[in-house]
Amino acid sequence: LTHLYLNGNQLASFPVTPGVFLLLRELYLDSNQLASFPVTSGVFPALMELYLSRNQLTSFPVTSGGLRVLRRLTLVGNDQLLELPLSLQSCTSLMYLEVNPALQRQA
How far apart are alpha carbons 4 and 24 in whole angstroms? Predict the structure, then answer.
């Protein structure tokens, strides 16, 4: 499985389990009900694009190295997300980051 589209399913949680999504390159979770999406090292080793816009995110915890090859991240429409984690700096391949205007000053 390299692409997973789960937009608009009203998901309140998503299983972030090591060893399950080793080949996943693109994950689409826009327009759900996610309050958090914790990313730990080794869960998404091949993930290049992550779409989390229009959820209920209040936090986006990423452990160092958790999204090492990530190139695109969208977080727009998560109005309760007030800050980005410093560990996002470990995403050295990140080329596109889309966030709410209030967060753009941090990015």
Answer: 8
Length of the chain: 107
Token representation of residue 36? 């958090």
Decide if 82 contacts 102 (C-beta within 8 A): yes
Give dist(CA 2, CA 59) in Å, integer. Answer: 26
Q: Which residues contact 44 (CB under 8 A, 6 or more apart)?
A: 21, 24, 27, 50, 66, 67
- DSSP letter at 86 equals G
> Which amino acid is it at 21?
F
pLDDT level of residue 52 (50, 70, 90 thresholds)? very high
Residue with tokens 């692409």: 3
The pTM of this model reads 0.91
Spatial separation of the C-alpha atoms in residues 18 and 36, rounded to whole Å: 17
